[in-house]
Amino acid sequence: MINLLASDEDREKYSRYFIRSYVEDNRKDFGLLCELPHFSISNLFWNWLFLQTKWCPAPGCDFAVDFVVGSGNYDVTCRCSYSFCWNCTEEAHRPVDCGTVAKWVLKNSAESENMNWILANSKPCPRCKRPIEKNQGCMHMTCTPPCKFEFCWLCLGAWSDHGERTGGFYACNRYETAKQEGVYDESEKRREMAKNSLERYTHYYERWATNQSSRQKALADLQQMQTVCLEKLSDVQCQPESQLKFITEAWLQIVECRRVLKWTYAYGYYLPELEQAKRQFFEYLQGEAESGLERLHQCAEKELQVYLNAEGPSKDFNEFRTKLAGLTSVTRNYFENLVRALENGLSDVDTHAACSRQGSSKSLGGSNKGRSGKSKGSTSKSSGSNRTIDDSGHWSCDHCTYANANSATVCAMCQHHR
User: What's the whole-model pTM score?
Assistant: First the structure.
């Protein structure tokens, strides 16, 4: 009836609202179906039909997204190129779970950090109790009108009781004496804890935000590369654009790695302080990820400019292709392993600790047995080292698995020694 009687504009509007109602009502319909006496939740068709479609949460996007069951994670990418988590509809956030993301987003927007800042960087006026920030060098403070009370920043006593005998304008021996007697310990301890908490949060938030801005810049650079630079590079280097896909793949990998690296800082913030072994291992993995990503980013950004600005085809362009493609592959593998390790709760730390304890207990079994074990271990290590050289005369780096020429002593990708 709509197709027969309505105008083209109304038909398009009806179709648009019909699809929207289907997507938005599917959960309601599923809830009604669950109330039917003979309905089984195990029915795969109904699960697929009513639970696997959602609107893309990107601003201005009109696409609905189908979720592929069995994909292994909740990260999905819309046709508009926006990636989000199917479970919570926040932006894609592997390796962090949805609960951690909710806490982190709430913390970033909550007033609690404002209160922490006030507590750490201000003191209440002894008379009117309003918080006051110290904005100049000396300890002589004057509250704002209408209070106008003058007091000492350190001991909070009236300034009329201060002078040369109490330490002058830049010190207060009353405060030091009272601190030694324990009078100010509780308030100072509370202020110090708030300051440490704020500094810790600021450390992780700044790096989270920096990687977010770096990712946005990388997305803009990718767009520029696809629309302008690849065509120019194709003309200069006399290469078809189909042969330059390795550059686009490198930039896509940079964008993805910036996203992962950003969320590792939220992961690190909520990692328990008491688990020192896991924290040290996490910081090592994170540092290696940052340095590897910087190498890839520098190669794709700065080294590529040499070939873009060249006057003609470069002889070593194929070497650059091999290097950038190799860095892309190594970085992808490392970040995939990093995501898996963090999603597993850094379980390798517990495994290594158990093996270490087991090895220590075995080494106490007797001197002859210990020497025998050591000899076998040396033989095994030597034979393992020989196996890293393949038939083509290349050796595989233990750190990044890149195949280097047999004559090289330093890995061309990660700069680690052989």
Answer: 0.62
